[in-house]
Each structure stands twice: as structure tokens, then as C-alpha cells.
Amino acid sequence: MTGGAETPAARMRKALHRARTSMRKAGVDYFRGDGSDWLALTALLVSVPALTLGTIAQPEWCAPAALVLPIVAGGLLLRPASLLGLYAAAAAALITESAVLDDPYRYGTDRVSPGTILVVAAVGFFGLLIAQFRSRVGVPWRRGGTMLFDLRERIRVQSKLPKLPRGWHREMALRPAGGQSFSGDFVVAARTNSGRTLEVVLTDVSGKGMDAASRALLLSGAFGGLLGSLPPHAFLPAANGYLLRQDWDEGFATSVHLVLDLDTGDYELFSAGHLPALQLSAGTGRWEEKAADGPLLGVYDGAGFDPVKGTLRRGDVLMLFTDGLVETNERELTEGMDRLTGEADRYVTSGFHGAAWHLIEAVAKDVNDDRALLLICRD
């Protein structure tokens, strides 16, 4: 057939395609939290009379308090304005049940009592608070957990250490305070200078756990952008200026910046108020502190950071860590570092592969603080 006329079958296929596309888009928008909540509202409004009929027919199996189920679901799914409509339907259902189940001799404890009304009202009040909080934050419950998971994965990816050439080993372990998923400690790393140089920055943001996680996420993104884009001696001054511009009430941080030549093993260590690193010399079997000079990040402008230099020879190990690993209210810093080196000595003969996590478990397993440990070994 020629011309512009369409057959009924073609028009039907187009209509079905538009309907499928619209439904798919509405479903995606709904689960993203961008679409209307009419579908959830309709389902919950239908459930209210269904529960009412069940209560009237079999009150011993479907108690009047069952109306809290759509109310709880509404608090999680609906916007505040839609939730008020659901509450009106639930109130009408309670009134209907109270009128029908009015005979105390026939229905006994299955009647709508003042306690039932108080329970339903209390659940409705808390459901409205939850809905208002979600509306104010702008993150629906369907996306809230996904967003937190995404943030955690972004921190994990940013903290991933790059692969090193043959003859080198690196590993990092991070344990947030209280078993949480977010930490105020983070690592950013990159291979620069055409892959010949490894730059690693270990930072400890003030605070711990969830309280410091948002600042740690922001700083890890900023520090990751600075790392490799500036000469090594300019990184900490730039990071300090960035932190000062945030003007946070609790905006300081400690940081240590390692610049390691993977060909020669020579390194420079810059510190911003961070704990000294520990280097194991394979020749002597002793641990040596490597402490650089520099103030905390975010305290004052124009700060200078003087590096300490060293060399990792074959069999040497360099440890970078945060204060949660070695310092507690009951344990001084020197005692904690002695304990860390004592536990690390157990891996000298067998090698440090897989040792970072076990060292945290042995030294600071139940400490209520963020703990991070980075190991760089030259085989």
C-alpha cells in the first residue's frame, strides 16, 4: 500500500509501543524518586477499605490496628501532601469500624478501643515526620540507600592503590570507627612522571566515622584532582589553601604525602601535622621513624612543609598510618608505635603480603576511631 494511510494493525502497534514506553519511564522515574507517587497512593488507598472489610468480617484475624500497615508504607513511599489523603481515608475507616463493631458483648476486645486509635495516630505522626524529612532532604527512601552505597564505593575506588612494577608490593587497609561504612581517613594515589613515580597521600580528617565522612569524601575528590597536577612540593600548600577556603567549623586535617621513585627507591615524605612514618631496614632489622615538618592543614595560610628524604632498598618496608591505629585514651603514642612495630616484626621473615588488615586487627581491633594502614615493600 502506498500513500500516508496507516493500517489498523500499525496504529495498534504504535499505541502499544507508546503505552509500554510511558509505563517504563514512569516506573524508572518512580524508583529514582523523580516521578509522581500516584501509583503508591492508589494502591494504599485501595488497601484501606480492604483492611476495613477484613476487620468487619473477621476481627479476630484482622484487628483494627492493622490500619498501621498502609500508614507505615505511606510514610516511606508518599509525599506529605499525599500522605494526608491516606490519613483521611484511614480515619474514615476507623470511624466505620468503630460504628460496626460497637457491640461489646459480641465483639469484646476486637472492637476499636481508645488504645487502637492512639496507636494508629502515633504511627501516623511518625510517618508524617519521616515523609517531611525525606521531602526536605530531597532524597526518597528508594534512592537513599543506593546513594549511600554509591558514596561508599566512590571512596573505596578513590582509595585504590595503583599497580606497581615487578619488585614492589603495596597494600592498604582501612577500618572505620564503630564498624561503620564511612571513615574520616582516606587515601589517594597515582603514578606520575610517566609511571616512574608513585605518589600517595594519606589523610586523617578531624572527627571520625559518619561525622567526618562527608568532609573526607569532598577532600578525597579535591586531593585526587591535585595529585599529579602539581609538583610534589606544591601539593600540601595547595591542599592547605583549599581547606582554608571551605571555612569549616572543624576543618583541619593531618596528611602525609609520599613521593617514591620506583626505579631507584629514593623517596620524599611531606607531612602536615601527621604521625611519622616507620621504615624497616632489611640490613639492620630495625624500625626507624621518618618524621617531616609541617603544620596541620586548614589552620593558617602560607604554611611551609619541609620533606624528609630516604631510600627503600631491597627488603625494606615503609608504613604510613593514622593516629587511630596507635593512639587511644588508654595508650600513649610511643607505646602504640612500639606495639605496631612489634606485631610487624612477625612478618619480616614470611613477607608482608596480606599483613595490613591483620596488623590493624592485632593492634587496634576494638578502637572507636578510624584506622588506616599503608604498606610499601620492596622485594
Describe this structure in words.
This protein is of the alpha+beta class. Helix content is 47%, strand content 17%. It has helices at residues 8-32, 38-57, 68-77, 80-100, 104-107, 114-137, 141-158, 210-226, 232-246, 323-326, 333-344, 355-364; strands at residues 168-175, 185-192, 197-205, 253-261, 266-272, 277-280, 287-290, 308-311, 317-321, 371-378. The strands form 2 sheets. A 5-stranded antiparallel beta sheet has the order 1-10-9-6-7. A 5-stranded antiparallel beta sheet has the order 2-3-4-5-8, with helices on one face. Helix 2 runs antiparallel to helix 3, helix 3 (68-77) runs parallel beside helix 6 and helix 8 (210-226) packs across helix 9 (232-246). Residues 30-34 have low confidence and may be disordered.
Salient structural properties:
379 residues, alpha+beta, 5-stranded antiparallel β-sheet, 12 helices, 10 strands, 47% helix, 17% strand, PPM-type-like_dom_sf, Serine/threonine-protein phosphatase, hydrolase
Quick summary:
Pfam families: SpoIIE. The protein has helices at residues 8-32, 38-57, 68-77, 80-100, 104-107, 114-137, 141-158, 210-226, 232-246, 323-326, 333-344, 355-364; strands at 168-175, 185-192, 197-205, 253-261, 266-272, 277-280, 287-290, 308-311, 317-321, 371-378. The chain has 379 residues and is of the alpha+beta class.
